[in-house]
Fold these 2 entries.
Entry 1:
Amino acid sequence: MSNVYNWQLGRPMDYPYDAAFPREQFAFVFNLNRCIGCQSCTMACKSTWTFSKGQEYMWWNNVETKPYGGYPAHWDVKTLDLLEKANPGGQSWGGTPQNAKAPYGQFKGQTVFEAAKHNVSPEGAQKALGYLPTDEEWAGANRFEDHPTGAPKGERDRYFQRPESLPQHKTWFFYLARLCNHCSYPACLAACPRSAIYKRPEDGIVLIDQERCRGYRKCMEACPYKKSLYRGTTRTSEKCVACYPRVEGRDPDGGGLPMQTRCMSACIGHIRLQGLVELNADGTWKENRQHPLYYLVHVAKVALPLYPQFGTEPNGYYIPPRWVPLPYLRQMFGPGVDAAIERYSVPDRELLAVLQLFGKDRRICFRYEIKQGPKVFETNIRGKKFEMFNDTVIGYGRDGKEIARIAVEEPVHVRPAQHANSI
Amino acid sequence: MPKHEVDSEDPMELMGVTLATHEDTLTPMAECFIEEFMRMRFNPEQVLELFKNPDYIGPHMVWEQRGEGFVRQLIADSFAQWGRAANHESRVTNNA
Ligand code: SF4
Ligand code: SF4
Ligand code: SF4
């Protein structure tokens, strides 16, 4: 075991390998206030990467309906439960939020790596505390999560004829879009006995070498997000490849510039912004004030890691949904939730402008600038002064050239009916 | 064990089970949807259409449980609160 620094936990932690950070790290921010659960992202990934034999139940990108849903079923509840059993009552946060080295204070509990040491089976200790989902749990991605329906025992094909048999949503829920987090301390990589999983030094994308993989599924067991999946036809594990040819700038559409992945660019709700961030020698984010992801995660602090307490330092960040009870969100996104919701609910001038970058251009944005516009409105919102300016945000690609220019009050153009879908 | 029925006694079987909560979050949820689409420059009528659409489950749930009058009022209040009431319609261009 090595001792590595996990800035999301605000402390060092144990990890089976030494820390090694990429030159740039693949990262993304999802605004959950906007996800409409349309699954366009899911289908964009499937139609690009997982449409072949043996991949029928494989969804590298999935969108699940929280709090009930999950792919595989109950993945997060089960992992949280394992951690709670390993460290009863101890999975809590403390300390005070500081700079980029400890923005959420300090996690006092145990990560999947730390808790695994005490979970010794006849095979020895696990590298990361985990479990193998059953085939049933993998089989029904987002099925019955929005329209819970049932059937009498033995009449499985009649699900949709009996919609009255289970209750429908009566209260809060939200859609959680997920893919591999291309973690800084990947549990999948730590657990692989064949060293078949590697993290690329150029962009931090985590890949499974299909030549080396023998399908032991140790990665599936270890990944707390359950984003390594097994393919029976090849007897190997597969996972999200972060659409690496696009990120490398090899998609002809990008004109040689790095492009956002398929699931990001296909998002109807404009909830996604993906990019590459630079890291310091200790793995913390290099200060880059005009980088949109740096701004959202470290300046505005509206975007938070998913289950940071697992300890893998995931690189997917989420703007939490405003209406969901805070205790639930604190468990899911850590102690930064209260401030994030507060800031997002009454967004300031810069945040309103940066949010306009989401979903606007398929090329990766490396820097933004804001051109100030006139004040268009002023009021008091929930006891706070709110001023709205029609600023313009300008996004720049890898080559420093402009890729997007959007005003806060951007006009909307509605397609005429005869060209509603004319692509 | 593979299961064919929902067991409401099973604490791990959360799917399809009514969530026990005393917090009424329908209004903040609806407010959030209205504001998000307002920022995407939908006009009040277009936002109302989302709430009427049974395929758009979140807003539709509010429309069903609270009625159209409630939704209309909330849309009007939200647009007014964020200064979008009077001239929003005219900013939307329809090429048709
Ligand atoms: S999310 Fe899971 S599969 Fe992806 S890098 Fe992290 S541990 Fe590995
Ligand atoms: S990044 Fe690419 S491979 Fe990964 S989930 Fe999205 S579309 Fe699929
Ligand atoms: S495409 Fe976007 S809005 Fe639709 S389900 Fe995926 S993340 Fe949500």
Entry 2:
Amino acid sequence: MIPAPKKERPNLLAVWGAVPRLPEQDSKEFLSEVFKGSFRRLKVAWVATLCSLVSIAALSALLFCFVSVLSGLKAASERLPEDVSALAVIREGEKFNGEEALKKLSFVRSFEVVSSEEGLNRFSTAVTLPSDTLENLKKDNPLPETVRITVASDTELTDLKGALGALPEVEEVLVDETMFTFARKVMRSVRTSGTILSLVLVFIVAFLISMSVLVALFLNRDEIEVAKLCGAADRDVLLPSIVDSLIVLMIGLWIGAIFSALFLKTLSGGFLSEAGISISLVSPLLFGILLCALVLAVSAGTTFAFLRSHRGTD
Amino acid sequence: MIVSLQGVEKVYPPHQPALRKLNLHINEGDFIFIAGASGAGKSTLLKLLLGSERASSGTVAVLGKNMSQASEFEIAQIRKRIGIVFQDFRLLKRKTLLENVSLPLELRNYKKKDIETRSLAMLDALGLRERAYDYPPTLSGGEQQRVAIARALVGKPDLLFADEPTGNLDTHMSRIVFNLLLEANAAGVTVVVASHNLAMIEELNLRTVVLDKGEIVGDFEQPKGVR
Ligand SMILES: Nc1ncnc2c1ncn2[C@@H]1O[C@H](COP(=O)(O)OP(=O)(O)OP(=O)(O)O)[C@@H](O)[C@H]1O
Ligand SMILES: [Mg+2]
């Protein structure tokens, strides 16, 4: 027979009494516990951790490279117009009189009048010719006087062409328009496709992160259910999962950044610098994109996770 | 009143009735049995009290909160004051006994060292101190049941729900467990036990509510001899 309940019950009271009143943990301690727990979980599930690390690193390296090259191209395309100039060819035997007028034109950056003698001098220093040929050339001097003009941008070239062409002494104005617009077009398409691609990459990174939160929740769904029945709130369940995936994300991003920096360094020593494209790893665009990816990932992951865990309650 | 049910009905979708027009009040410090045949609705009643199922109609109030209106966070707060022994134990297979028993304390954010001390003491009280670092699947049914009871009691809850807590135990172990529940009750815990172990109910002779097909068919202060 069961003994009647006694007044004094040492067993259970001793258990509860062993730690009289447990102090509430402060939030700092709570967070550090979450972090410690994360590292423990990541260590246990090291295969999954490694897989997501590799994929995030690869994707972010791609993203980094892309954005860096992109910003290099952008800077290069902004510099491009400065190098473009027009060439006015003066009629034989005449002199250029439009210097004052050119100075007044605001879009003209600089200009240089090259007389026919000067032109020949430059020509002869640039090209090595047999001395008798050079003598013949000097005697006839077939080179006309020219004016080389640099403008701020290509839109002003048409205006310039009109203005110069109106001068009586100008025989013709040469503008390498076709070449110029082609370069522009290429730049523009590279930029748009690059932007689209990096946006896609952002979404992929975000998707990966939110998936890893979801997978973490899915793998632990039994434990989460029991924890919830024992009094775990959504945030008790979600915070560790989000911290887990953020840790993986951070490490993955760093690995990706290091690899892409190494890659870009070898690249920028090569053909890119010859093409006049300088690459900076620290561009505001890059930070913007990364921030987007992070915000997107965390919010998407959290939302999905909340939806899931709510479904798990009932 | 720590638990109060008023006109509670539960119909599992699509149309599986489990509880009908239930009125039940439990006072603080009570020790109450919910008896009834298999399928009578005992587990369903406990699920409503825990907020893991919602009543189809009527009001369920636990610890002063209306469970059908409480938010997710409020329900979590209430559950932190409740200890529960599930009919199927629901131990975490991939965690040691110590970690299993620690769970309710961890959810209350206690200090690591305190959690371990108290959880080990709790396991000790149930004779499982030596198995603290083993995993649940290596335990017998009765041992697992004792772990479940340890987990329910470790946080010194205000309310204890036990669904068939002695279903896998022999008479001797059943007595040890009921002694523990009585101890908890004497220390101020309100205890609700769902059971069809009529022998034990008669032996204890405490308030017993009898369910049949989802309806209360009896509420006895002293069930001894009623059968
Ligand atoms: N999730 C569910 N979906 C549909 N019907 C359910 C569900 N859970 C329980 N039921 C039904 O509700 C009724 C009551 O079930 P409940 O589990 O509450 O019985 P019980 O009294 O705990 O029985 P036992 O003593 O066997 O544990 C049963 O008819 C059962 O089939
Ligand atoms: Mg049941």
